[in-house]
Amino acid sequence: MDISTEKLAEDMKKIVGEEYVFTDVFERVVYADTALPYDVGKEDLPDVVVQPADAKEISKILKYANEKKVPVTTYGSGTSLIFGTKPKHGGITLSTERLNYLKIDEDHQWFECGAGVKHGRLIKELGKLGYFFPIQTQAGSSIGGSVSVNTLGHLTDNVFARPVANILGLEVVLPTGEIIETGSKCLRRPAGLDLGRIFIGAEGILGIITKVRMILYPMPETADAVAFFKTTEEIGKAIVLMYKNKLPLPMDGEFVGEKACKVGYEAFQLDFPEGAMAITRSMGRNKEEALKNALTLVEFFKSVGATSSFILEDKEIREKAWAVRENAMHWGEEKGLKGFLAIEVNPVLPKLPEAIAELKNITEGRRDLIGETEAYLYGHVGSDSLHCLFVFPYDWSIKKMKQAVSEIWKLEKELQLKYGGVGGDWGWLPYRVPLFREIYGEVSYEILKKLKKLFDPNNILNRGNIEGEV
Ligand SMILES: Cc1cc2nc3c(=O)[nH]c(=O)nc-3n(C[C@H](O)[C@H](O)[C@H](O)COP(=O)(O)OP(=O)(O)OC[C@H]3O[C@@H](n4cnc5c(N)ncnc54)[C@H](O)[C@@H]3O)c2cc1C
What we know:
By secondary structure, the protein is of the alpha+beta class.
């Protein structure tokens, strides 16, 4: 950085206005913090946080950053579990929260919004008009963050498809400051080359997405079902058969392993059978169709060994059953454990039950730090995707936590390679760079680096992420 922090802040104020530039330590910590179990250190902080109002201000910031060689980290809402928003080289953290314009255009059958609009608001505003937002991560996540990761959260890939399939167009500010538009305003997406696709899933290294245009999905009618199995492995086998038997896939579906169910049932006072739980949301164009699809799954679950399975008609029980899954980050708390780290393993479909069996007992007999953690298994029912949450005492030293994190990531990489997985929910950058290189090879990694150089010759945006720095 060819400039002092004071001068940087002064110059930023000239672009975005005094009230949208922050240099105090509290703001800098808030925007640097991530889901890593240890606190951010001084070296993780940005020098300044800015909140620009629109693409024009972002363009000015990026032109300035190029001239002065200042790194810029884009911050949507920081809920990513892959730590892309943690600054690795100081500089500017650029928050998209003021890009909050939203227009729902029923005549054109799309909505258009600023990158900072939160999922919770989209779900509510689209819902009021009878439309469904086809990305389901955290209510607090920004659409810019999710589109940058091309993630759809809990939803089933084979039902709603990834954002890349649902996006009509983008406005993007390139790292060198030019503003471009991509895609179409009609419902027909461009065939052939569509530049927008390069930025969707680029995890913020090729440009800052400032506006998103996405198709409107009519709100489906839904019916939820639950199934209880003696073991989580049986759920894995059921998922494999669900696909092979061409059953109506749930639009959303989760499972919770034996250990986590125990904690969840106690917390929500649910009198559910012991073992593991699968919970599904089926959809249809009308209530009858949704219910028919859900009942088909209920019958199927019973036929493959569920000890019990039924439609979740009671609203209170339904909400509590989902909450058993949604409260994953709190599963260790009853044991006084507060530090946690989650991993993601996406086995190829035939190996799903085997991967479940391995992950379920992952801490047993280990002599490393992973053996000292409590591990809870959960995952998606609509896709072959597993998560494991490792929890440990929050009073471990930072050094010990960092060692545990590195062991857990190494384990994730080994398991992904063993079972044929990818960075399916959270993306690749930065900590899955070694996995990317191993799966796709050095030629592919070189292509990524060349793309980055082409778009961002001074390596301004999200510096350190493609290099795999955490
Ligand atoms: C409890 C919990 C559960 C979660 N469950 C899921 C889940 O089930 N499935 C799932 O897929 N994810 C899940 N996530 C991860 C996370 O919620 C999603 O990845 C989310 O979509 C990220 O949105 P964000 O606004 O927080 O992005 P951020 O974390 O702010 O950013 C993510 C990346 O995109 C970049 N970026 C952000 N905005 C822009 C922009 N406008 N232009 C260019 N680059 C940008 C950032 O620099 C960063 O690299 C979960 C997270 C938590 C905390």
